[in-house]
Design a protein that fits this description.
By secondary structure, this protein is an alpha/beta fold. The chain contains 22 helices and 14 strands. β3 and β4 form a beta hairpin. The longest helix has 25 residues. The protein is globular and about 90 Å long.
């Protein structure tokens, strides 16, 4: 990255002074704001190599660095920290050099990453929980591409199983031939409605059975409705024509609904797999594993995987009636994807509720002899919760993405109208763009591992840690650039020293490629999201403290407009990687 060579210069010199010191022993970090300097060497660990006190080691080291490295101008020592001040000419030079190739980020890795995200069921519409999955997957894919990887965005549609049959059965029993056209309801919402109806009717049956003297567990097992759904699944797997026809019809409604939602969010996928196809591949490999002794069969005909680890229970792979479970299709999907894509790595973006599932999947693939099992990674993320608790699809206690997008549009429009900032004659899309940014940034700024308590009001704060704040900063810079569009792009001034606000902003600008790399390396878009907020916040401080267009010296105007232009470019690029648009005017 930009500073890597200079950090290596410092480490080389330290190692030459203290030959027993290793590079890993040397800690170099940004100087704290309360100290004076640009970079700081942590001296505590180095004293054992110098055989001197911490203070004397710092003085010796600082003096040598100033003497030997021409871009270090001075040093100071505070409580075990050696703070190094770089020459202003250094900042001019690295800033100018970094833009000669239009701020090339990171080199091509010649590696292919397959990244799975979303992976919805065809028994309900996409909801807020899916949204975090979709946004994480899309942002990480974009960031990986920016870091030099080739990425295939894939998903698996869970289009078969007992949950799908529940929606189908409920529609047959209670639907009166209702369709998306006849009801004017989006297809995925219509099918989701019948999934909820099944659960409601199932609960009624259980309550009746309990009143008749059956236990709660017995009621669940002997429920006629549930057993009808199980029978439907068997008929589906045996290829019964009318069941397959109904399945295709209702799934087509859902796919049309999904596509509209994806378009509204602004995401797409390179390749889609279907569980109705991949489970067959999984079944074939499980049966082969049974023949070779990898798996075992119980007396009832079910097939299981046994693990040496006493902490892991046996895992069901095929039921006694021959029907497949989720693990079966995941085995098939993984094998098919590797054969299709020949990926170097595969990333599964799936919530932390599935941690155990993916641990078992990777173990099973290893047990089956697939050497690439070690290249699979589960990006486990925290759930999105509502103020009144966890979302439950079968109870209808969810926030659908379609409804959420409408709500965010309405909220952003009201805020803009009330603030007097919105001119509908200028851009009627502005509330949509701002609402979209508020929602996406709110979801992407926390570390993926953390759970989120969704709060739409907090996401649309033009003065807070939000997407709209970053958008507003971009629009502010764009206004400056429109007035200073005749200013030449310059990054070097020789007649004056840089101000601290200018250096702070330049440092952040130069950290962009490192930020992209760290975000990609950790599969963590929050690193980029928080960087963009810091950049916007630092620019606003710069804007408040330093005259830009009104500076007396024309060279200062040109330089500050050039820096402003680069900040705007990085905000635009970075937000685009997060899937967020930045309006030219707000």
């Amino acid at each position: 990255m930009i500073f890597d060579n200079h950090i290596q210069d410092i480490k080389d010199l330290i190692c030459s002074m203290y030959p027993t010191c290793h590079r890993d022993d040397i800690q170099i970090q940004d100087t704290r704001k309360e100290f004076t300097g640009d970079f700081t060497v942590v001296v505590f660990a180095l004293a054992k190599f110098s055989k001197k006190s911490v203070e004397n080691t710092a003085i010796e080291l600082g003096s040598k660095l100033v003497e030997e490295i021409n871009y270090i101008s001075s040093f100071n020592f505070v409580k075990g920290f050696l703070n190094l001040k770089f020459l202003d000419s250094f900042w001019y030079l690295v800033l100018e050099n970094s833009y000669k190739d239009n701020f090339h980020v990171n080199a091509c890795k010649n590696k292919k990453i397959a990244l799975e995200s979303c992976s919805p069921n065809t028994n309900k519409p996409l909801h807020l929980g899916h949204l975090r999955n979709i946004l994480l997957g899309d942002a990480i894919s974009n960031i990986l591409v920016a870091d030099g990887f080739f990425v295939e965005k894939v998903q698996i549609i869970n289009d078969r199983g007992i949950h799908i049959c529940k929606s189908m059965l409920a529609w047959l029993k209670f639907g009166n031939s209702e369709t998306p056209n006849s009801s004017k309801v989006k297809g995925d919402h219509l099918v989701g409605k019948y999934y909820v109806i099944f659960e409601q009717e199932y609960q009624k049956e259980q309550n009746n059975l309990i009143q008749q003297g059956h236990s709660k567990e017995e009621a669940k097992i002997i429920s006629p409705l549930l057993n009808e759904a199980k029978e439907m699944l068997k008929q589906w797997e045996s290829g019964k024509a009318d069941i397959i026809g109904l399945w295709k019809k209702m799934n087509s409604w859902v796919y049309q609904g999904f596509e509209k939602t994806y378009n509204n969010i602004g995401v797409s996928f390179d390749k889609i797999y279907y569980e109705s196809e991949t489970y067959l591949i999984g079944k074939k490999h499980v049966l082969n594993g049974l023949k070779s002794g990898i798996f075992s069969e119980k007396d009832d005909g079910s097939i299981w995987a046994r693990f040496q680890d006493n902490n892991i229970d046996d895992k069901l792979l095929l039921r006694s009636d021959g029907t497949a479970v989720y693990m079966t299709q995941d085995i098939g999907t993984a094998i098919l994807r590797y054969d299709d894509l020949s990926f170097d790595n595969m990333v599964y973006v799936v919530g932390n509720e599935q941690n155990h599932h993916f641990n078992l999947l990777f173990r099973l693939l290893k047990k089956m002899g697939f050497s690439w099992y070690n290249n699979l990674f589960h990006l486990s993320y925290g759930m999105v919760n509502l103020p009144d608790g966890k979302m439950k699809s079968r109870e209808g206690n969810v926030i659908d993405i379609d409804d959420l997008l409408k709500e965010m549009y309405s909220k952003s429009k009201d805020i803009l109208l009330n603030s007097g900032k919105l001119d509908l004659n200028y851009d009627h899309q502005l509330p949509l763009i701002i609402g979209d940014a508020a929602l996406k940034y709110f979801i992407l700024k926390p570390d993926p591992k953390k759970e989120i308590l969704f709060n739409p009001e907090a996401s649309i704060d033009f003065n807070g840690h939000t997407g709209p704040f970053i958008q507003y900063t971009y629009a502010r810079i764009n206004s400056i650039l429109s007035k200073g569009d005749m200013c030449p792009i310059v990054f070097s001034l020789v007649h004056r020293n840089l101000l601290k606000e200018e250096i702070s902003l330049i440092k952040l600008i130069l950290n962009y490629p490192t930020t992209i790399h760290q975000s990609a390396k950790n599969f963590n878009p929050s690193i980029l999201a928080n960087y963009l907020y810091s950049l916007a916040k630092e620019y606003n401080h710069f804007y408040q403290k330093i005259p830009i267009l009104s500076a007396e010296d024309k060279n200062d105007v040109n330089f500050r407009v050039s820096v402003s232009r680069k900040v705007a470019e990085l905000i635009s690029k970075g937000m685009k990687l997060l899937g967020i648009k930045v309006p030219a005017k707000m």
